[in-house]
Specification:
By secondary structure, the chain is mainly alpha-helical. It has five helices and two strands.
């Protein structure tokens, strides 16, 4: 799950897609009702929607840990960055939070969430509203 209006988040999603030839990652905007529901179901004490969130085999990962889990499953030289596991989580997450807190100021934001091309639509989780059903 990612911030659908954040430019750096959208760039990250495109970056992941290019390095995930098997299509193991599916994406969902944090602004969707489904994302909110998933977050509440997995961690009812944290309803903040300001981190990349990875749900993998029932485990939820956020912040730098989510990024490193994603990188670990990608192809190419980016995998070198899994070495950041040796940096303590507190330090990694402090850097992550600084960037996340300032992401709109540093990278700007979009007026609306990313709309994937037809070729990439299968990589994005459709919410009930998007698939033509109502949220009710």
């Amino acid at each position: 799950m990612f911030d659908g209006i954040c430019n750096v988040c959208n760039y990250w999603i495109q970056f992941v897609i290019k390095r995930d030839p098997k299509g193991i990652f599916k994406f969902l905007s944090l602004q969707s009702d489904l994302a909110r529901s998933l977050i509440i179901n997995h961690n009812p004490n944290n309803t903040q929607l300001d981190s990349i969130i990875l749900i993998d085999q029932g485990q939820i990962y956020t912040e730098s840990t989510a990024i490193l889990h994603i990188i670990n499953k990608l192809t190419g030289p980016i995998r070198f960055f899994v070495l950041f596991w040796i940096i303590p989580k507190k330090i990694r997450d402090k850097v992550y939070r600084f960037i996340a807190k300032n992401r709109y100021r540093f990278f700007g934001k979009k007026e609306s969430c990313l709309i994937p091309s037809k070729e990439l639509q299968n990589r994005f989780i459709k919410t009930e509203t998007e698939s033509g059903k109502t949220d009710e």
